[in-house]
What does this fold into?
Amino acid sequence: MATAGGAPGALIRIAVIDTGIDPNHEQLSGRVLASAWRDFVAGQPEPYDDHGHGTHVAGIIAGSGRVSGYRYTGVAPKATLYDAKVFMNAGTPATRDAIIEATLWAVKKGADVINMSFGDVVASPLLREACRIA
It folds into this structure.
C-alpha cells in the first residue's frame, strides 16, 4: 500500500461498493466524505449502512485502530473512504446496473482503489468492461 509521510494509506482514496458505511463508527469517524458518498439504491443524501457489511469491510480496509490503542488497524488506516451503496438492508441483491454505475462513479470521483466484496454467479460483459475501465 502506498504511503505518504510514513502513514499507511495517507492520500489514498478507496471506494467501497457495498451496503454503505456508517460514518459515525468510531474506527471510521471523519473518514467517509459526504462529497464522496452516493446511494445507488434509495437516493439518500447522507452516508449510512443499514446492514453492516460495508462498514465491516471499510474497517478491514481503513479502520483507525483507536479502540485497540492503535494496536490493530486496517490495512490503510489513513485512507479516505468513498462510499457507494448498492445493497439494501439484509443484503438484498444489488442490480448489476447499480454496481456498474457505482464503479464508473468511483472512477469519475478519482478513487485510487475500488473494493467490491461480493460475488456474481453470471459473468456480465458490462460489469467486466466497467472493471476494465476502472
Observations:
- The radius of gyration is 14 Å.
